[in-house]
């Protein structure tokens, strides 16, 4: 349906991957927390029984990694750092105060989102490697016990770190009005795009003009 006031922010495949990732991540996170903190042992019932949680936790962890690989392929080129990102860092106080007077020349993602993106990708790689080393049913027998113990420790630390980043991601998505609806519907208003991602808005507008596409029709 044509809407001249809307811009495509996230395509259906990206949104479907994101929400599938959300479900898998929370299943993995809750079961992981049940072993890390004894007081949260009841969370292991997220998979039905504690025994089933131990069986399925690593499989869902691999699923999280593969889903993030897809998102990495889709979004990494938007998250490469550029000179204009310095404007965001220089005006970060105004950004946090929700002031939008300065033109920050922000692309599809701002510098803070880029840091979050690369941090999440680094931690998920660490979780995959350490998780495979500690995966008793298939791989841990190939490694010395001290290596497995170190892998379990680092896996737990990386897991907590990733959870904290995701909590931050959720908070910021709720804080910036329009972000959640963009991942639900795929669209943002032109006013939102111009306010929060001015350079990206200009690029999309230029693409529409060069392709001869009417505003709101570009898929």
UniProtKB/TrEMBL annotation:
What protein name applies here? Formate dehydrogenase-N, cytochrome B556 (Gamma) subunit, nitrate-inducible
TM stretches of this protein: 16-37, 57-76, 115-138, 150-174
- Which species is this record about? Cupriavidus taiwanensis
- Which keywords are on file for this protein? Cell membrane, Electron transport, Heme, Iron, Membrane, Metal-binding, Plasmid, Transmembrane, Transmembrane helix, Transport
What is one GO cellular-component annotation here?
plasma membrane
- Which family is this sequence assigned to? Belongs to the formate dehydrogenase gamma subunit family.
Q: Where is the Cytochrome b561 bacterial/Ni-hydrogenase domain?
A: 14-186
A Gene Ontology biological process annotation?
Answer: anaerobic respiration
Q: Which InterPro entries match?
A: Cyt_b561_bac/Ni-Hgenase, Di-haem_cyt_TM, FDH_cytochrome_b556_subunit, Formate_DH_gsu
Q: Which NCBIfam families match?
A: formate-DH-gamm
* Annotated gene: fdnI
Instruction: Please indicate if the UniProt record lists Heme as a keyword.
Output: yes
């Amino acid at each position: 349906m044509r809407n001249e006031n809307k811009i495509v922010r996230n395509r259906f495949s990206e949104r479907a991957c994101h929400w599938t990732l959300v479900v898998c991540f929370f299943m993995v996170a809750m079961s992981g927390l049940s072993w890390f903190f004894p007081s949260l042992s009841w969370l292991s019932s997220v998979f039905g029984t504690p025994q089933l949680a131990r069986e399925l936790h690593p499989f869902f962890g691999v699923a999280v990694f593969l889903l993030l690989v897809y998102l990495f392929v889709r979004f990494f080129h938007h998250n490469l750092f550029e000179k204009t990102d310095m404007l965001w860092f220089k005006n970060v106080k105004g950004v946090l105060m929700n002031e939008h007077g300065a033109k920050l020349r922000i692309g599809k993602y701002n510098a803070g989102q880029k840091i979050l993106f690369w941090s999440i990708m680094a931690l998920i790689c660490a979780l995959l490697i350490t998780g495979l080393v500690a995966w008793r049913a298939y791989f841990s027998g190939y490694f010395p016990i001290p290596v497995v113990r170190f892998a379990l420790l680092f896996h737990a630390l990386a897991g907590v770190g990733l959870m904290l980043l995701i909590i931050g991601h959720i908070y910021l998505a709720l804080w910036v009005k329009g972000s959640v609806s963009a991942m639900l519907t795929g669209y943002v208003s032109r006013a939102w795009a111009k306010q929060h991602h001015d350079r990206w808005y200009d690029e999309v507008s230029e693409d529409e003009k060069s392709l001869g596409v009417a505003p709101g029709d570009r898929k």
